[in-house]
Amino acid sequence: MRLIGHIRQIQIQKDALKKGEGPDRYYDLGALSIVPAARLTSEGVIGLIDSREIHDVHHSWHHRSRHRPSSAISFNFAQNYERMVRRFGSELSMGCGGENILIELVDGVELAPLLEEPGVTFVIETKDASRGTLTGIKVAKPCVPFSNYVLNLDAKPPVEVVKETLQFLDGGMRGYYCAWEGEPLEVRTGDKVLTLL
């Protein structure tokens, strides 16, 4: 098993980040919260703040749940955000895509080869050596509201600009969905992320 990175940030969506209907849909970060710790389960993510538990909107127990077992958890990499900032500007905040887990790769680890391997899984290891697995990893397809958000233009962007943005954000730039395999696990920033490859 090989160390590839560490958890840099953990966050939950208290509600959907896409608001409105039809062509008037927009992206709003108001329901996104950074948390010091979370419990990862097969039902989704529970944010932990002091003694409070807050269910992510993709957890099956959320009162307006958007749960799907195969995409109960989402993650992305700090390196992807660095590329987005270079393209869209420094106003873009780390984690604005709403992923539950942001991973910082260690020096020498290349992102592309990791995710090109079929059946790749990531293992999270806590400080007490407890482990669980992010499995069934699949690309989170970008949407128009998020594309408009990262473009941050005063007027509605031209169709061709939105199309180029969607293409740039595809292929994992926008992040990944996955399922959780193992017993519920409480994770914190700094916990290790490993792979079998």
Descriptive key words:
197 residues; alpha+beta; 7-stranded mixed barrel; single chain; 4-stranded antiparallel β-sheet; globular; 4 helices
| Number of helices, where a helix is a run of at least 4 consecutive DSSP H or I residues | 4
Low-confidence stretches: none
Secondary-structure element series: EEEEEEEEHEHEEHHEEE
**What is the C-level CATH assignment?**
Mainly Beta
Helix and strand composition category: alpha+beta
Give me the CATH architecture, please.
Beta Barrel
User: And the CATH topology?
Assistant: M1 Pyruvate Kinase, Domain 3
Largest sheet: 7 strands, mixed, barrel
Q: Average pLDDT value?
A: 94
The total beta strand count reads: 14
Spatial extent as radius of gyration: 16 Å
| N→C terminal distance | 7 Å
Strand line-up of the largest beta sheet: 1-9-8-12-11-10-14
Helix content: 10-25%
C-alpha geometry: globular
Please state roughly what percent of the residues sit in beta strands, choosing from under 5%, 5-15%, 15-25%, 25-35%, 35-45% or over 45%.
35-45%
* Total count of domains: 1
What would you note in describing this structure?
- The structure is a single chain.
- The protein is α+β, with helices and mostly antiparallel strands.
- It has a single domain (2-185), classed as M1 Pyruvate Kinase, Domain 3 (Beta Barrel).
- The protein contains 4 helices and 14 strands.
- The strands form 3 sheets. A 7-stranded mixed β-barrel has the order 1-9-8-12-11-10-14. A 4-stranded antiparallel beta sheet has the order 7-6-5-13, with no helix packed on it.
- Helix 3 packs across helix 4.
- The longest helix has 11 residues, at 78-88.
- The chain starts with a strand and ends with a strand.
- The relative contact order is 0.24.
- The mean pLDDT is 94.
